[in-house]
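Anyone up for a design puzzle?
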């Protein structure tokens, strides 16, 4: 059981590392090249606030919650 536990830890780290380098790194590189910022982190000194107003919901938005 101890050997199985150690192998599980090692395999998990290997699988997560492969996932990181195959999925997340290419997506980040594409976003950098395209200058896409999904969090809109640009600083604008003329802006009083960075709050984005929420969209009003209809009166029936809780009619069928699930």
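Challenge accepted. My sequence:
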């Amino acid at each position: 059981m101890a050997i199985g536990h150690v192998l599980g830890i090692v395999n998990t780290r290997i699988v997560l590392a492969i996932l990181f380098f195959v999925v997340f790194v290419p997506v980040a590189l594409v976003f950098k090249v395209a200058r896409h910022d999904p969090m809109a982190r640009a600083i604008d000194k003329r802006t009083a606030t960075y709050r984005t107003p929420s969209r009003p919901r209809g009166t029936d938005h809780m009619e069928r919650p699930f």
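A detail worth pointing out: The chain has a mean pLDDT of 90.
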